């Protein structure tokens, strides 16, 4: 009986603590649905489609509101005006990275994507500078992508026009571009090490978008106490890091400080220059996590966009025909596409932008955090509060993009058929935390898609009208459904 009393008292205290934490300062935060003790608003949210749940809540509470994931409040920004005001107008104040317990356990504040403060600023600045300078006056990123596009075409030819699942091949191409930048060399598509890296990256991307991982990030206690796919995620992460450490040791042995060959060499040179700095940013641990971030920013997102893009082109053969007509007029059949062609190909440019807008790859972006107490629209948001930005609400804004649920390249064309820029195009997010791989992704999407459409006719194995383009996962990322197609050589 005494044990029952103790359990009841402990549970009561826990509930009271939860209620106190959720109510303290609540008058300062934006309004939102009433949270349950401990659980917060998790039962009112669809973990398979968080973005849709937030859209429904915005109709009740407006463009700025608060939801609780467990006992932690998240301020949600919905609609272009709120997102722009925070990420662009108040970019510095909203430049923090919100806490994701699953990522914190693996990275411990290192790298670019999930770091904060000095480590984030220094590492991001160094990485952007190094990527811009690539390859140290020898080979530009465009050269690397063009080379990989040619290899991609050869791999697609090997399918002999038979039905195939494009997932693996479309993943290999952007992954190899990153490998050539980081490790100096690309891999053959049949290389066993390359296949293992590809498998782990793809698997982790799928796990990270699963409903279970949304629950783990909401209730971190589950990470250490329960079995689940998160353990596979951690194992894959550790294996890739182990390979990066191995390659780093090889680079340390062969390093020529006067002739850096790749990203690792550049980082090791800076590490030597900064070794007496008290605030150590350039460490082997930070290098490994930075490389992992470059793989994430430059591989899985691009390959998913390519895969989704081909599905939409299969669904809309009239769009594909127009793009191929523009390729014939501007590039022809015998010369490789280059980035200079893009300014002469407004329709193709519009199609690529519309693919990114329509698929809404990262619906709520990654969580931001405010770097200090800030007054925002008459609310006081305390330092460290997580901020969730609904990119869906911007990319699918009905006023900017009429009929936003319809795939229509006209969303990015003016009445004369010229390409039309839009401030609402936030496929890479916006502000200080805009995607590090944005520049590389834009080059890859244009060169890979135009090269494929220059060399192949896309043939669906079912009637295009019967193709389903609804994403199968809409947690962290929108993933296209499985499909097969034929690449018919021209």
TrEMBL record:
One of its GO terms (cellular component) is mitochondrial inner membrane. It catalyses: tetradecanoate + reduced [NADPH--hemoprotein reductase] + O2 = 13-hydroxytetradecanoate + oxidized [NADPH--hemoprotein reductase] + H2O + H(+); an organic molecule + reduced [NADPH--hemoprotein reductase] + O2 = an alcohol + oxidized [NADPH--hemoprotein reductase] + H2O + H(+); (5Z,8Z,11Z,14Z,17Z)-eicosapentaenoate + reduced [NADPH--hemoprotein reductase] + O2 = 19-hydroxy-(5Z,8Z,11Z,14Z,17Z)-eicosapentaenoate + oxidized [NADPH--hemoprotein reductase] + H2O + H(+); dodecanoate + reduced [NADPH--hemoprotein reductase] + O2 = 11-hydroxydodecanoate + oxidized [NADPH--hemoprotein reductase] + H2O + H(+). InterPro entries: Cyt_P450 (IPR001128), Cyt_P450_CS (IPR017972), Cyt_P450_E_grp-I (IPR002401), Cyt_P450_E_grp-I_CYP2E-like (IPR008070), Cyt_P450_sf (IPR036396), Cytochrome_P450_fam2 (IPR050182). Its EC number is 1.14.13.n7, 1.14.14.1. Heme binds at residue 435. The keyword Membrane applies. Its main location: endoplasmic reticulum. It is found in: Endoplasmic reticulum membrane; Microsome membrane; Mitochondrion inner membrane. Residues 1-25 form the signal peptide. A cytochrome P450 monooxygenase involved in the metabolism of fatty acids. Mechanistically, uses molecular oxygen inserting one oxygen atom into a substrate, and reducing the second into a water molecule, with two electrons provided by NADPH via cytochrome P450 reductase (NADPH--hemoprotein reductase). Catalyzes the hydroxylation of carbon-hydrogen bonds. Hydroxylates fatty acids specifically at the omega-1 position displaying the highest catalytic activity for saturated fatty acids. May be involved in the oxidative metabolism of xenobiotics. Belongs to the cytochrome P450 family. Interacts with chaperones HSP70 and HSP90; this interaction is required for initial targeting to mitochondria. This is Cytochrome P450 2E1.
């Amino acid at each position: 009986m005494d044990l029952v009393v103790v359990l009841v008292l402990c549970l009561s205290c826990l509930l009271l603590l939860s209620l106190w934490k959720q109510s303290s300062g609540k008058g300062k935060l934006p309004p939102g649905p009433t949270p349950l003790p401990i659980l917060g608003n998790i039962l009112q949210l669809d973990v398979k489609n968080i973005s849709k749940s937030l859209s429904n809540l915005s109709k009740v509470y407006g463009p700025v509101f608060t939801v609780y994931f467990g006992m932690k409040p998240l301020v949600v920004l919905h609609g272009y005006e709120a997102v722009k005001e925070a990420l662009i107008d108040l970019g510095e104040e909203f430049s923090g990275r919100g806490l994701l317990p699953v990522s914190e356990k693996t990275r411990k504040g290192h790298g670019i994507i999930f770091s904060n403060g000095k480590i984030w600023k220094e590492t991001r600045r160094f990485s952007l500078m190094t990527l811009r300078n690539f390859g140290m006056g020898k080979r530009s990123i465009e050269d690397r992508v063009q080379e990989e596009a040619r290899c991609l075409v050869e791999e697609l030819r090997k399918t002999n026009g038979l039905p195939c699942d494009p997932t693996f091949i479309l993943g290999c191409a952007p992954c190899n571009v990153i490998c050539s930048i980081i490790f100096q060399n690309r891999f053959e598509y049949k290389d066993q090490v390359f296949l293992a890296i590809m498998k782990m990256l793809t698997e982790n991307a799928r796990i990270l978008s699963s409903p279970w991982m949304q629950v783990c990030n909401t209730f971190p206690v589950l990470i250490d106490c329960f079995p689940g796919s998160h353990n596979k995620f951690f194992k894959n992460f550790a294996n890739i890091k182990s390979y990066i450490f191995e390659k780093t040791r090889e680079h340390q042995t062969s390093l020529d400080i006067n002739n850096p060959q790749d990203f690792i060499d550049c980082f090791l040179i800076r590490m030597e220059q900064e070794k007496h700095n008290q605030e150590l940013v350039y460490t082997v641990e930070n290098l490994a996590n930075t490389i992992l971030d470059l793989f994430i920013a430059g591989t899985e997102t691009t390959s998913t966009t390519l895969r989704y893009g081909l599905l939409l082109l299969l669904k809309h053969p009239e769009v594909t025909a127009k793009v191929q007509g523009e390729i014939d007029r501007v590039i022809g059949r015998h010369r490789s596409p280059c980035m200079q062609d893009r300014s002469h190909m407004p329709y193709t440019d519009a199609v690529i932008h519309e693919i990114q807008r329509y698929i809404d790859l990262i619906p709520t972006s990654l969580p931001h955090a405010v770097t200090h107490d800030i007054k925002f629209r008459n609310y006081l948001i305390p330092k460290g509060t997580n901020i969730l930005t609904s990119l869906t609400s911007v990319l699918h804004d009905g006023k900017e993009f009429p009929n936003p649920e319809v795939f229509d390249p006209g969303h990015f064309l003016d009445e004369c058929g010229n390409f039309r820029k839009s401030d609402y195009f936030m496929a890479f997010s916006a502000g200080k935390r805009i995607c590090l791989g944005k520049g590389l992704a834009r080059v890859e999407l244009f060169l890979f898609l135009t090269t494929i459409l220059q060399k192949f006719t896309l043939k669906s194995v079912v009637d295009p009208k019967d193709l389903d383009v609804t994403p199968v996962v809409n947690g962290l990322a929108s993933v296209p459904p499985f499909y097969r197609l034929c690449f018919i050589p021209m």
